[in-house]
Amino acid sequence: MTIINDLQVDNLSLLYGKPVLIIGSGFSITPKKLKDIAILGEELYFKYLNVATMEMPSLELEELNNIDTTTKDYFLLMMLLNQSIEFRFTYEQALTFFLDVSVTYNTEEQSLYYKLDDDEILFIPEQIEAIKYVLRKQHNLETQKESENPADEIAKKIIEKQKAGREKVAKIKQTQESKITFCDLVSGAAVFSSSLNILNIWNLTYYTFYNQFHRLKMVEDYDIGLKSIMAGADSKKIKLKHWVEPIQTKQE
Question: How far apart are CA 99 and CA 116, in angstroms?
Fold first, then answer.
């Protein structure tokens, strides 16, 4: 059973902000808007995103041999939820926030459940995989595994993963060139755009905002390049990329 292959997560639906139905679950993942980030708080929002999308560490455990990656990741997630109360609380809160359903971990059964109406329903490994995939797509993050050597203790591996995750989240909140904050990006886009303002920009999803912000930058770069050529600059040294071309920038 592979849920990801049946998900409808294309660029156009992401740009529109269409909720993504997790097949067989009874719930959809509705992309959060900028106002949701502001209300929750920027730091907590990206912490939730980091936890909800983090990849599991590679471990050399005999009981994990000969099983697929999805099931292995689910096993390691349950192990982590059982070992760390702090991580368990954050993970429950993160999934509850992004899925808009109550999510709880049963310590006796060592299983993760979500509540739909009055029913407690068990998550299956493929659903957790699909949730991570959709959230990463909605936030323009690459879905990839990091190659790492196995460690003796899972705690050490998780600390390393969380540290790497925090570094990735930092890339979302600020550029590499300066200490520009996410707030600065929102404010700047509201001022520069001809159709966005500080009142309506909050209704954009994160993906749409990210797309429009970079599209605005492409328009500006194209305009500057064209004016430079018209002013006598060497056209061979100026690379003009039209603003309707695909956006290449990807967050890693």
Answer: 11
14: tokens are 């992401």
CA-nearest of 9, 50, 59, 11 to 210 is: 11
Answer yes or no: are the C-beta atoms of 79 and 94 closer than 8 Å: no
Per-residue H/E/C for 190-249: HHHCCCCCCCCHHHCEHHHHHHHHHHHHHHHHHHHHHHHHHCCCCHHHCCCCCCCCCCCC
- Domains of the chain, by residue range, sit at 4-173, 182-237
Instruction: Give 200-239 pLDDT, tens digit per residue.
Output: 999 999 999 988 888 887 777 766 666 666 666 666 666 7
Report the distance separating Cα 166 and Cα 53, nearest Å: 12
**Predicted model pTM:** 0.77
In order of 64, 83, 94, 122, 190, the CA distances from 127 in angstroms are: 19, 22, 15, 10, 36
> What are the tens digits of pLDDT across the range 71-98?
888 988 999 999 999 999 999 999 999 9
